Amino acid sequence: MEILWFIPTHGDGRYLGTAKGGRETNFAYLKQVAQAADQLGYEGVLIPTGKSCIDPWVAASALATHTSKLKFLIAVRPGITKPTVAARMAATLDEISQGRLLINVVAGGDPVELEGEGIFASHDERYEETDEFLNIWRKLLAGEKVDYEGKYLAVKGGELLYPGVQKPHPPIYFGGSSDAGIAVAGKHSDVYLTWGEPIEDVKQKIKKVRDAAAKEGREVKFGIRLHVIVRETDEEAWKAAEELIKYVDDEAIKKAQEVFSRFDSVGQKNMASLHKGDRNKLEISPNLWAGVGLVRRGAGTALVGSAETVAKRIREYQEIGIESFVLSGYPHLEESYRFAELVFPLINYNQQVELDSKVSLGEIIGTEHRPSDLVKS
């Protein structure tokens, strides 16, 4: 099992759907979150991408110099960046970080945002280009000289003069719930990522990807992207979940869902179908709560419960083949400590970390600190 945390480069706070309790997106705060994850023993962190986020590559390059073991799962966007340039970027950051780079391939799911980036390809065309992109990118990182002529991309005499640390290339994490996405995942991904869906749905998706990979003579590992709301008791956790959306009203849900409805991402449609915009039916399977997806795009579900309950649910996902857990919680600084202190011991994760040498959760969020102090310190 590997557990990754999340760097909130699009903003953070105590509540969803409001500026109340919000935190400024600045490097000082992002560094705090990254260093907490590093010290607590998380394997790595996901840095998101998109119009609403600061650039993940620049952020990761800076954060890598302030951490020692933490890996960085960073988005590569086919169609926005040429594979030759992306290969040089990957090799450079892999060298700077001494092998701490992970690659998250993102084809995009919002046509309006993509048009703003200069991309006008259809859903399946984007995955076709992603396939070509990764054919070139992987060969370059493996040290090959590349001549390639495809439908979307062409390279003549491409080569990478300064290779990275990891061979043949940094691990590729890949999501995509459509048939086109799963086909590309089976061909190229090292770890297939799904958003948090009920166990049976995830099990079916795992089978599809395994079958797609087998057709290519490959094997793929599996991961899941989830939020977590963990407390000492189930009652406290469910109360915290309701607090998180206390400022989300019906109008905010309606506006958010109208925006999400334009997406051509099958994964996003799956997230919306779990809650159907109804805040009264959010526990979609035991302890899997869809409240985040009422107003947040992408990963919209959270595991909610006591440490024992959440650990049990994690084990259930692990039993069907999930090895990588990419987690987050609001606010991300405090919740990184809370999850590590409460859940790590129950799943025997990273027991070599000396938690008693770390700043405790109580010290982090005690009365002697205000939210503004956390941002500025």
Automatic annotation (TrEMBL):
Q: What is its EC number?
A: 1.14.14.5
Protein name in the entry:
Alkanesulfonate monooxygenase
Keywords linked to the UniProt accession: Flavoprotein, FMN, Monooxygenase, Oxidoreductase
> Start and end of every Luciferase-like domain?
1-323
Entries under InterPro entries matching the protein = Alkanesulphonate_mOase_FMN-dep, Luciferase-like_dom, Luciferase-like_sf, SsuD_RutA_monooxygenase
Q: Which Gene3D superfamilies match?
A: Luciferase-like domain (3.20.20.30)
Q: Which GO terms describe its biological process?
A: alkanesulfonate catabolic process
NCBIfam families reported in the protein's UniProt record? alk_sulf_monoox, PRK00719.1
Mind telling me which HAMAP family this protein's record contains?
Answer: Alkanesulf_monooxygen
Which top EC class applies here? oxidoreductase
| Catalytic activities | an alkanesulfonate + FMNH2 + O2 = an aldehyde + FMN + sulfite + H2O + 2 H(+)
Q: What is the lineage of its organism?
A: Bacteria, Bacillati, Bacillota, Bacilli, Bacillales
The entry assigns this protein to a family as follows: Belongs to the SsuD family.
Species annotation: Ureibacillus yapensis
Summarizing the function annotation, the protein's role is: Catalyzes the desulfonation of aliphatic sulfonates.
Q: Name one GO molecular function term.
A: alkanesulfonate monooxygenase activity
The record ties this protein, via CDD domains, to: Alkanesulfonate_monoxygenase
